[in-house]
Amino acid sequence: MSAVGGEDTHIFRISHKIKNLWTDFGNYTHILEIIRLFHKIIAQTIQSTIVVLAPHVGYDKNSTTETYRVRVKEMNETIETILNHRSIRAFKDEPLTEDQITTIVKSAQAAATSSYLQVYTIIGVKDPAKKKKLAELAGNQEYVEKNGHFFVFCADLNRHKIAAEMEGLTEDEVVESLESTEKFMVGTIDAALAAQNAALAAESMGLGICYIGGLRNNLEEVSEVLKTPDRVIPLFGMCVGVPDQNPDKKQRLPMENIYHVDEYQQDETEFIEQLARYNEDIADYYRVRTQGERTHTWTQIIANKMSKPMRLYMKDFLKSIKIPLK
Predict the structure, then answer these.
(1) β-bridge mates for residue 209, sequence order
(2) Residue 22 and residue 19: Cα distance in Å, rounded?
(3) Helix ranges (DSSP H) in 28-145
(4) pTM of the entire predicted model
(5) SS3 letters across 263-290
(6) Mind listing the pLDDT tens digit of every residue in the chain (326 residues)?
């Protein structure tokens, strides 16, 4: 339950202790300790469930015994689907049906869009050769090739150039808008909103998804594979299919570190303390998941990524497809 901070990681640690004690089950002291740890897991699970459900189902903390009284109110399948998200990187060899594809795309189109502009296009890739090439360009990610269907979400200002021309305007009359940073941002935001709707639709049908940002490793070649015209940017892909794995969920940042009230959090000391606590949970998560081979903290991961700039060709690529970001 990643939404509760470190609770699931604590349960992982307790389970790991039980596993180690189990190897000497005949030891009476170990038996008692195993029983105690099982009780601890049950108590921790109940408390974690209450904390997760409380924002969605309502709760009353006013009790002399300081116990929560949870009343089911608003929890529904949509929220459960959202909270249960995890990236799937192994799929069964089962192509999506045309009905499934249509439902996913229609759901994507139902997303909010700035000023009704709809500045995006979705390309569904079925051709095995194209999928194999895209997998290679995305960093040899096998699941880009092997999935139920592969979607590519593009920011698309080409459609708007054509729309303006249909109404008697020349390209020169709309070029300032087409080349603006604002319209570029609208396109990326629209595509992201549509993609998340598509992801939720897919997951609600029992399918798994994985976003693929690796397409931006080489957008020139990706554009050639997809035959996208000027002013169309393949932003990211999405693998969709029947899951062939059930990975653990990675817990997210503490809510208080993400959600600030009225203004950005001003106390940097508290900000750092929140991240430090989160670091402990993430280190435990990796320690348990890799049996001690990895103990990275979140800030270590971020520092490593920030120290290695990526895709610095992007501005030149955008300029080459007539989006110079003015």
Answers:
(1) 240
(2) 5
(3) 28-57, 77-83, 98-109, 128-137, 142-145
(4) 0.78
(5) CCCCCHHHHHHHHHHHHHHHHHHHHHHC
(6) 334 444 454 555 555 555 555 555 555 455 555 665 565 556 555 545 544 454 444 444 443 433 333 334 456 899 999 999 999 999 999 999 999 999 999 999 999 999 999 999 999 999 999 999 999 999 999 999 999 999 999 999 999 999 999 999 999 999 999 999 999 999 999 999 999 999 999 999 999 999 999 999 999 999 999 999 999 999 999 999 999 999 988 899 999 999 999 999 999 999 999 999 999 999 998 898 888 898 999 999 999 999 999 999 999 999 999 999 99
Report d(CA 230, CA 162) in Å as an integer: 12
- Distance, CA of 12 to CA of 286 (rounded, Å): 10
Per the listing, tokens 């015994």 go with 65
Nearest to 191 by CA among 298, 86, 114: 114
* CA distances from residue 17 to 30, 74, 139 in whole angstroms, order as listed: 11, 37, 37
Q: Which two tokens stand for residue 314?
A: 């992007």
Tokens 């699931």 belong to which residue? 8
Phi-psi region of 25 (alpha: psi -120 to 50; beta: other; left: phi over 0): alpha
**Token pair recorded at residue 186:** 């609208």
CA distance 9 to 86: 16
Rounded to 5°, angle at Cα 199 from 45 and 246: 45
CA–CA distance from 210 to each of 69, 144, 236, 282 (Å)?
37, 9, 10, 21
Task: State the CB neighbour count (10 A cutoff) for residue 307.
Answer: 7
Question: Would you say 188 and 172 are in contact if contact means Cβ atoms under 8 Å apart?
Answer: no
Beta strand pairing status for 59-60 and 69-70?
antiparallel
